[in-house]
Design brief:
It is built from four helices and five strands; from the N terminus they run ααβαββββα. By secondary structure, it is of the alpha+beta class. Helix 3 crosses helix 4.
């Protein structure tokens, strides 16, 4: 009887540790827009906006939410699904019109589970690379 009680408490404890601090699309939405690695592209804002969805998808991220913040700033939030090795990640991409032919893209990534050491912590390089290829 005591063994069953301890086993139950152990399982509850493990669940609390595993699921505490879980991040979701809503948790990344309010992070400062200046967070995350950025890259400036020598391209028109609208041209960059046009190639971004495919660049994100090709990085293994499914787009969950898009929002125009103002006339010079756009936000895309997506998720990398969990698989056998990790719980997944949440990714936010900010696209900002810097000048007539310059656009800044900023990528902020959060692991869905903070303790998940196998989850990819940064998708910026893959997304930036995909954008560069599409702008050629």
């Amino acid at each position: 009887m005591k063994t069953k009680k301890y086993l139950t408490l152990l399982i509850i404890g493990i669940c609390i540790v595993l699921f505490s601090g879980c991040r979701s699309v809503s948790s990344i939405r309010d992070v400062s827009l200046s967070e995350g690695p950025s890259q400036v592209f020598n391209a028109d804002y609208n041209k960059v906006l046009k190639v971004i969805p495919e660049a994100i998808s090709e990085s293994g991220i499914s787009i969950e939410e898009t929002k125009q913040i103002d006339d010079k700033t756009y936000m895309i939030i997506g998720e990398k699904s969990a698989d056998a090795f990790q719980w997944g990640s949440v990714v936010r991409v900010i696209i900002e019109k810097t000048s007539k032919n310059k656009t800044t893209v900023r990528v902020y990534t959060q692991k869905k589970q903070a303790l998940n050491i196998t989850a990819r912590g940064d998708f910026s390089k893959a997304i930036f690379s995909n954008i560069e290829l599409k702008l050629r």
